[in-house]
Design goal:
By secondary structure, the protein is α/β, with parallel strands linked by helices. It has 12 helices and 9 strands.
């Protein structure tokens, strides 16, 4: 079954009485070149296990199954398993798990399904919950080597933006703390059914074995970063003071101790400077 043929996709959906859900952000890939390129970018072979999030009708899942040793696809829409039973028929190295990835114990799932295998994540993520999914994958320190995902282009730029640059946001710093991100290629709206209103992009996050900075308190550093970017038009001194509920003089003293100018804005600080700032600030 050719799952990138629009007539085939429409027929499949019609036979199963399936209508795409905007609530689940469903857009199926119909450009035949996209999924093979994604899987190739993921750099996996028969020795690898792969977690896919949101398989849809299985376009990417099939490509993954042809290369990987095992694929576990997590799908939140309980209407899709009957379609996947049909589209993935004959592929004995795929398991579909029905559930919300944000509520799934991924560490337990990986241990159960991929014992002894290197593990990667490869997925076309639902755009409305991209950041929560990416942060869950990173913050839980799962035994995964890398993450290759398609997201909205704007989100890709934000996730990959280097700390200390204009495009960086709080999530950029978090991503760089846990991984080395790289923008791979863009995907036009016409590559999907129905076509979204935005351009997409595929990124790869190579997870660090050890973070590039070592703050005294990791959570305190991220609180300081989020507080600073909560009012990114202001200086770090003003934004962090307001966001953390700390007197401005204490924030200014911490900035000075960390060697950061009092006039610095949130996106001008490096990850190392945020670590030094939160260390100087102490418990809040």
């Amino acid at each position: 079954m050719n799952l990138t043929d629009l007539a085939t996709v429409k027929d499949l959906c019609a036979r199963h009485g399936f209508q795409l859900s905007k609530g689940f952000g469903q857009n199926f890939i119909v450009n035949p070149g996209v999924c093979p390129k994604m899987v190739e970018s993921a750099g996996i072979d028969r020795t690898w296990g792969v977690v896919e999030i949101g398989p849809g009708i299985g376009v990417l899942t099939k490509e993954l199954a042809l290369r990987a040793g095992k694929v576990v696809a997590i799908e939140v829409d309980d209407r899709l398993p009957p379609l996947l039973d049909e589209t993935l028929a004959g592929l004995d190295n795929v398991r579909v798990v029905l559930g919300d990835v944000l509520k799934t114990d991924l560490a337990a799932l990986i241990q159960q399904e991929f014992a002894g295998m290197p593990v990667a994540v490869c997925a076309n993520l639902p755009y409305y919950i991209t950041s929560p999914i990416v942060m869950k994958l990173l913050e839980e320190r799962l035994p995964i080597r890398h993450i290759t995902v398609m997201v909205q282009k704007e989100a890709a730029q934000r996730l990959c933006a280097a700390p200390g640059t204009r495009d960086a946001g709080a999530v950029s710093y978090a991503v760089h703390y846990y991984a080395a991100p790289k923008m791979l290629f863009t995907v036009q709206p016409g590559s999907f059914f129905p076509p979204p209103k935005v351009t997409s992009a595929v990124i790869r996050l190579e997870l660090h074995q050890t973070p590039p900075v070592a703050p005294a308190d990791e959570r305190a550093m991220f609180r300081a970063i989020r507080a600073s970017f909560g009012q990114r038009r202001k200086t770090v001194a003003n934004a962090a003071s307001a966001g953390l509920g700390v007197p401005k003089q204490r924030v200014l003293a911490a900035l000075e101790q960390a060697g950061i100018p009092a006039t610095a804005r949130p996106e001008q600080l490096t990850l190392a400077q945020y670590a030094a700032f939160s260390d100087a600030l102490g418990p809040v």
